[in-house]
Structures are given as C-alpha cells and as structure tokens.
Write a structure and sequence with these properties.
The chain has 189 residues and is mainly beta. A 15-stranded antiparallel sheet has the order 1-2-3-4-5-6-7-8-9-10-11-12-13-14-15, with no helix packed on it. It is extended and about 60 Å long.
Length: 189
C-alpha cells in the first residue's frame, strides 16, 4: 500500500490518505492541532467516509503529553493512556465495546525514564525491573497477587573500554541458570 500526506501552513500533518496496491483509497486520517501547534485529534475514516476511530490528546502545562484517549466508531472509549509531566506513561486502561473499564494497568519509571514497575489488572501481577548505572536492565521479576515470585530473569554485562556492553548473559530463575548469551562487536571509526 501507499499513502499521501497533506500538511498545513505550520508544517504539521493535516491529512494522510492510504491507498491499496491498486491505488484505491481505503482509509483517510485527519489531524487537528491547538493554538500551540500540539496535536489534539486524529480522526480515521474508511473509504466510505465513516469514522473508524478517534484519538484525542491532552497536554500538561509544560506541553508534554498528559492523556491519549482512543474512541471506537460508536463513540465509546476504547483505551486511555495517561502520562506524567516528564512524558512517561503511568497508566493504560482498556474498555469494552460499551465503554466500561476492563482494567487499569499502572506503571512507574525512574528518573532516567526506565520502566521500574508495572501492575497489571488483568493478571494481578506486578513486574519489577532494575538497571545498572549505564542504564542496562539487570533484572526482571514477575510477582503474583500475593507477592510471590513466579518468574525472574537477571542480566550481566561485560563492557568495552568505551563503556558499551559487548557481552550480555541472560540468567533465568532464582538458580540463575544461563538462558542465553549475546555477544556483539562494535567497530569505532
């Protein structure tokens, strides 16, 4: 398939037309912006002009994305993502076809933007991540709703003289059995 884009006077995407391999239009997306040039709405239409989905965007005072909401063709909410003032996703909520919440997943990020915790409403699991000083993930642990570990992975790295990892060992479980080893070669010019 191919697509064609139309931009407004500010250089922002205004319309995107999607064509199948025969050149027939099968979808059209219309983009709208506020007076700060921040995207506020995307409406997606099928080839007959019926709206398939609507995306709305709200912002914090610092112009970072605060909320993204997706609506179905029937106008009912489908999903909602919420972001903190740094721009990191802190929640994701899904809704059934009638717009009733099916659950809200919560996320925490560290000061570097790394995801450190996820709480999943559907499984009632908590996932925790940790990182080394270089920002590489060193652990992933899944807990059940009672706080018991149900799965864990750990990672160790070897670094070159420039601080880039060249060997990554992935261990599984509390006994830290080797799951896989990744070796990479970096060429500097």
């Amino acid at each position: 398939s191919k697509y064609s884009c139309i931009y407004n006077d500010n250089g922002n995407l205004k319309e995107r037309l999607f064509f199948n391999s025969w050149g027939k239009l099968f979808e059209k997306a219309i983009y709208k912006y506020n007076n700060k040039n921040l995207l506020t709405t995307i409406d997606r239409y099928n080839s007959e002009g019926k709206r398939k989905k609507r995306y709305t965007f709200n912002y914090h005072a610092n112009n970072k994305l605060k909320e993204e909401i997706v609506y179905r063709s029937n106008g009912k909410i489908s999903e909602k993502r919420t972001y903190d003032e740094r721009g990191y996703c802190i929640s994701f909520e899904t809704y059934n076809k009638n717009g009733v919440s099916e659950g809200k997943n919560l996320f925490k990020n560290d000061n570097n933007g790394n995801r450190v915790e996820e709480k999943w409403s559907d499984t009632r699991e908590t996932h925790k991540y940790s990182y080394d000083k270089e920002g590489n993930q060193i652990s992933f642990v899944r807990y059940d709703s009672f706080g018991n570990i149900i799965y864990s992975e750990y990672f160790e790295y070897e670094y070159d003289k420039r601080g880039n990892w060249i060997k990554k060992i992935n261990f599984e479980g509390e006994n830290r059995e080797v799951k896989d080893v990744m070796i990479r070669t970096i060429k500097y010019y």
